[in-house]
């Protein structure tokens, strides 16, 4: 087991984490980035709505470029997941990796995103990024003039189905029950959405892309896209022992201030873990602020002079 010391450690190597690494490292903070690129929600996505990108770009290529950039400025990338984090009496954080190596750091940034609730049916994992999506807002435009299927019982699924009506030629909503407000229910039932109430998805068919959704009654829906809108579970279990405050509305995301600071001194957060919208622009902006602030906190905590 190896123990190393850093000024700033970033949990998560998606767009928020990598942007934070760029700014922390450029501020001359000894910076480590933890996590695997393929775990980022961006990895299998395609981006067309990010400022200054004229063409659709793969999420994988964006992350690879971000990793090279972070390394260029001196950040150390460690392709391991964190299994435990705690705050010591002196205010530093002790971070344990899956290899059992540990890091001692003055400031930490939570940027590990969220884990989406999944259907766990055949074809879902294999067709992720090839027709299976977990974000209507992010990927709706890729299914313009095509048939799509939204899966879910709550307001996210119902609202997603209504949004898809503007884009898709035909929209299906599959749900075993519909737990939404009366107004939203009325909008849905009076729309062109094809409802499959009392049904569950048993499988997703396709080869290079989604072709159909199978229901538990044997029915098959020919479709090009499947939006799984079952809500999202915050990836916060790792830090509950630190006493991190959550948002008061849903208690699913980390609450932060204008400097991306949490209620725990020296602990910052950025990206999806702070709540919607699930957009790369938001993640990058928050990562920028978090990286600068975490580096400044670490420098002050170490007694080093402020950056000029």
Question: What keyword list fits this structure?
Answer:
FAD/NAD(P)-binding domain; 19 strands; single chain; five-stranded parallel sheet; seven-stranded mixed sheet; 28% strand
List the helices and strands and how they pair.
Elements: E1 3-11, H1 15-26, E2 31-34, E3 46-47, E4 57-58, H2 59-72, E5 76-78, E6 82-87, E7 93-97, E8 102-110, E9 114-116, E10 132-133, H3 136-139, E11 147-151, H4 155-164, E12 170-175, H5 182-189, E13 194-197, E14 201-206, E15 210-215, E16 220-222, E17 225-228, E18 232-234, E19 267-269, H6 280-302
Parallel strand pairs: 1-2, 1-8, 2-5, 8-19, 10-17, 11-12, 11-17, 12-13
Antiparallel strand pairs: 3-4, 6-7, 7-8, 9-18, 14-15, 15-16
Can you walk through the features of this model?
Helices cover 23% and strands 28% of the residues. With 308 residues, the chain is an alpha/beta fold. Strands 1, 2, 5, 6, 7, 8 and 19 form a seven-stranded mixed beta sheet that branches. A five-stranded parallel beta sheet has the order 10-17-11-12-13, covered by helices on one side. The protein has a three-stranded antiparallel beta sheet with strand order 14-15-16, with no helix packed on it. Helix 1 packs parallel to helix 2 (59-72).
CATH homologous superfamily classification of the largest domain: FAD/NAD(P)-binding domain
Which oligomeric form is depicted? single chain
- CATH fold-level name of the largest domain: FAD/NAD(P)-binding domain
State the shape: elongated
pLDDT < 50 stretches: none
CATH class placement of the largest domain: Alpha Beta
Distance between the termini: 37 Å
CATH architecture name of the largest domain: 3-Layer(bba) Sandwich
């Amino acid at each position: 087991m190896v123990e190393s010391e850093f000024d700033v450690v970033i949990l998560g190597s998606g767009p928020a984490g990598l942007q934070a690494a760029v700014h922390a490292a450029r501020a001359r903070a000894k910076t480590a980035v933890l996590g695997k690129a393929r775990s980022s929600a961006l990895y299998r996505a395609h981006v067309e709505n990010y400022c200054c990108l004229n063409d659709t770009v793969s999420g994988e290529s964006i992350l690879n470029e971000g990793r090279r950039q972070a390394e260029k400025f001196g950040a150390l990338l460690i392709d391991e997941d964190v299994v435990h984090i705690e705050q010591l009496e002196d205010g530093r954080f002790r971070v344990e990796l899956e290899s059992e190596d540990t890091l001692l750091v003055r400031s930490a940034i939570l940027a590990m995103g969220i884990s989406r609730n999944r259907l766990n049916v055949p074809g879902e994992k294999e067709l992720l990024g090839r027709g299976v999506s977990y974000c209507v807002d992010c990927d709706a435009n890729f299914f313009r003039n095509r048939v799509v299927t939204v899966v879910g019982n709550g307001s996210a699924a119902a609202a997603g189905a209504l949004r898809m009506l503007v884009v898709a030629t035909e929209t299906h909503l599959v749900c075993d029950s519909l737990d939404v407000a009366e107004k939203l229910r009325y909008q849905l039932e009076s729309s062109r959405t094809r409802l499959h109430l009392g049904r569950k998805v048993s499988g997703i068919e396709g080869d290079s892309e989604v072709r159909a959704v199978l229901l538990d009654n044997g029915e098959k829906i020919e479709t090009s896209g499947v939006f799984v809108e079952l809500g999202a579970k915050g990836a916060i279990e790792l830090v509950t022992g630190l006493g991190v405050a959550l948002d008061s509305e849903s208690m699913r995301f980390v609450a932060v201030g204008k400097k991306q600071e949490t209620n725990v001194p020296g602990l910052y957060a950025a990206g999806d873990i702070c709540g919607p919208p699930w957009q790369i622009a938001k993640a990058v902006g928050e990562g920028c602020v978090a990286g600068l602030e975490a580096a400044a906190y670490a420098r002050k905590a170490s007694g080093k002079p402020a950056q000029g």
